[in-house]
Amino acid sequence: MGSPGQPRTSSGVTNKFAARLEQLNPWEAATVGILKQPWTLTAAAAVVLVRHHSALPVVVFAFVAFAVLSTATVGLIFLYFARRPGEAEAHLSDLRDRLVRAGPAIFALVSVAVGAYLIIDGVIGIAGS
To answer: Which of 24, 34, 49, 123 stands the most exposed, by the fewest C-beta atoms within 10 Å?
Structure first.
């Protein structure tokens, strides 16, 4: 372990993987993007709909709609990159840099929101029983 004030360094495997991701062509990147979809969120949405005893057509429609919408984001990014590669690369690089800088703050805010929801839901559940 390093000293307390120093950030951890990444491993050689992580560096090689990151370097490989930087070299992907647009088709390979689109494939990785589609495979790296939030399928757990899609499944969770389906479970919530089934749990609330929604009709089968509603469950199927919601599942398909969520899957299509989440995949469409990757498709739109790919289309943008295919039509305007220079402009897209500059914008996506800027977006990536901003997300990397804001990542910890976004994670903290989402964690607080989820925690608050769970606490409120628990209190309401206890008070209602």
So the answer is: 123
Token digits of residue 117: 């929801």
Q: Where are the domains of the chain?
A: 12-83, 86-129
Place of tokens 């609330």: 52
How big is the CA angle at 43 (ends 97 and 69), to the nearest 5 degrees? 55
Write a three-state SS string for 75-125: HHHHHHHHHCHHHHHHHHHHHHHHHHHHHHHHHHHHHHHHHHHHHHHHHHH
Residue whose C-alpha is closest to residue 37's, from 63, 14, 67? 67
Q: Per-residue pLDDT for the chain (129 aa), expressed as one digit of tens each? A: 555 665 556 566 677 777 777 777 767 776 776 666 666 666 776 677 777 777 888 778 877 887 787 777 777 878 888 888 888 888 888 888 888 888 889 889 999 999 999 999 889 989 887
DSSP structure string for 15-84: HHHHHHHHT--HHHHHHHHHHTS-HHHHHHHHHHHHHTT--HHHHHHHHHHHHHHHHHHHHHHHHHHHH-
